Amino acid sequence: MSFLRMQESPGFPHRSRGFRHKAGMTGHFPTSLLALSNKCKLTLMEFIGHSNAQRPVDNYGGSMFLILFVGFLAAGWIHAMKTGPHTKQRFAELMLVYSLVGYFGILMLGVAIYNLVAPERFAASHGWSVSTDNPFQQFVGILYGAMAIIAILAVWLRGMYLLAPAVCWSIFFLGATYIHIADFAARGREITFPLVLHIFSSHGLMAIVVIVLVAAYMPAVHVNRRK
Q1: pLDDT of 1
Q2: H or E element, residue 224
Q3: 26-47 confidence digits (pLDDT tens)
Q4: Which CA distances in Å does 178 have to 7, 119, 120, 123, 175?
Q5: End-to-end CA gap in the chain
Q6: 187: Cα separation from own chain's centroid
Q7: Residues 175-187, buried b or exposed e (16+ Cβ, 10 A)?
Q8: How far apart, in whole angstroms, are the C-alpha atoms of residue 23 and residue 79?
Q9: 6 pLDDT band (50/70/90 cuts)?
Q10: Is 148:106 a contact under the CB 8 Å cutoff?
Q11: How many percent of the chain have pLDDT more than 70?
Q12: 114 or 226, higher pLDDT
């Protein structure tokens, strides 16, 4: 029951008048509050993907993910600085582990859950459409979840194991970079430099960073295996 209906309902005459009298409300306040609530709801729906496929790219969302990724790399760097030894392989290992567990693990597990709970909204946020009788988006959610769990296991498993989540997510994000650009082009969207930079920074750049960290860390793994 809405606030307006409560005021007009004959079953609550004294309660509604008393509430309004104590709160000092005017008759226009509930209407303004309802209008503000509807405006907030529309804004939220557009943010989570109920707008059309031609909407602008969500630069804020991509920037947020990039900041989180850099934050996890910084956390790995700080961990290596405080614990030692201060070798290139040690820095690469901890920065790789933090990015795998934090970004590609925990954060992507949240994306997987959102994908499974609201597949239509997740697809719409990318400008795609998914019907209720098409389970493809749920399959994508399971894929995200499986790869995220593989990345989270890097907390306990090191050495050659780190190759598994690093290779999976690098290939996935490099492929996602191409797919997003090709999708925009297929829908007639002008492929501008800011658009490509936005897509690359939120996908391809992260894949390249992971590949560089793996390349810096692997020599130490080979040395330990020979020992």
Answers
A1: 42
A2: helix 205-226
A3: 444 445 544 554 554 444 444 4
A4: 56, 22, 22, 17, 5
A5: 72
A6: 24
A7: ebbeebbeebeee
A8: 53
A9: very low
A10: yes
A11: 69
A12: 114
* Tokens, residue 43: 């804004």
DSSP state of 154: G
* pLDDT confidence tier of residue 13, bands split at 50, 70 and 90: very low
Q: Which residues of 134-173 are buried (b: 16+ CB within 10 A; e: fewer)?
A: eeebeebbeebbebbebbbbbeeeeeeebebbbebbbebb
Rounded to two decimals, the pTM is: 0.70
For residues 93-99, average pLDDT: 97
- Give CA–CA dist 202/64, Å, rounded: 9
Identity of the residue numbered 107: L
Q: Contact 201/64 with Cβ under 8 angstroms? A: no
Neighbouring residues of 123: CB distance < 8 A, sequence distance ≥ 6: 49, 129, 130, 137
How much is the pLDDT for 41? 43
My answer on whether omega of the bond before 194 falls inside 30° of 0, hence cis, is: no
Distance CA 115, CA 140 (A): 8
**Tally of CB atoms within 10 A around 52:** 8
Closest among 166, 172, 159, 181 to 214, alpha carbons compared: 166
Measure the CA–CA gap between 208 and 214, rounded to whole angstroms.
10
The contacts of residue 125 (CB under 8 Å, 6+ apart) are 48, 49, 58
| pLDDT value, residue 32 | 54
Residue for token digits 């901890």? 94
* Beta carbons of 80 and 217 less than 8 angstroms apart: no
* Token duo for residue 110: 């949240």
